[in-house]
Every structure is written in C-alpha cells, then in structure tokens.
Known about the structure:
The protein contains five helices and four strands. With 174 residues, the chain is α+β, with helices and mostly antiparallel strands.
Amino acid sequence: MASERxxxxxxxxxxxxxxxxxxxxxxxxxxxxxxxxxxxxxxxGRASIRAVAERVHVSRANAYARINRLIDDGVxxxxxxRINHERAGQGASAYITLKIVQxxxxxxxxxxxxxxxASHIALVSGDFDVLLLVHTPDNRALRELVLTRLQSIPEVxxxxxxxxxxxxxxxxxx
Length: 174
C-alpha cells in the first residue's frame, strides 16, 4: 500500500526526521530485575557484574547481558564520578535561565555544550526557555561566561543568573 504524500512532500505515515534528531530505539519495558539492577548501579556504579548478579539472583552472564541491553537501549547513559565542585576548584555555581529565539533550541544547545563548566542543560516551559547549570572557579569566571560567552550567542535574547549559595547532592551516598 502506498503512503499518502503530505503537502510539504513528506510521507504521511512516517514522522519527519530532521538533521540532528537522535534516532533512539523505542523504550522496552523493564522488569523487576532490570529495575533492581538500575538501583544497584545508581547507588554504586562501580559494582561488579558478579555482585550485581548475586544481589538480583541471576547468573553473571544474565546480569552482563541485561546491563549491556540497558546500555544499548539508552537506559544507562554512562557511569561517572560524583564530584564536589568546590573541592575541585569550581567554587562558583549558578543556574542561568535563557530566553531564546523561537525554534533555535538545537543551535543554542550546541553552543551551550561547548561552555566551560556547563553541567546540565534543559529545555523547559514557563517564563524562560532554557535552564543551564554551570560551575566556574570564581565569580569573575562566571561573569565572563555570562556576559561574554552566553550573551554573544545570537539566538540568546536574555539571561538571568541565579547564584547557588549552597547545594546538596540527592544522589545516594556510597
């Protein structure tokens, strides 16, 4: 059966895919063992396959296969260290809100990914469009980042900087 042609030339039964759009597999349902594995790795990303297998009562081969599937499916995005930014020389932190030109999210996101100290970027709804978390060595570096780097991005209409006085990591302690 032939698909319908839309006025803009797209096939009617297939979603439009634009350059830069990520093609991710459809989410696969997680069973209780998968959820237990995720909880263990969330608490201790350095847990061995053997320890994970023992805790969820499956073979090492099964645990290994499940973890690889969770990685391949994009459920597990990576493993990393939890960093005390102040102790690591990044003593100034701020959330920065940005208003951007409509339909420029992908372009702005690529600019923000290159910023030194950027640790989280989110497209949000509300009074602003983007929420950015940054960690810099000091307020001078933060000022440079906001006034020079961010405000020079043509698609950024305005920014508002919210200094972080104290933060508490809600991730499980290990």
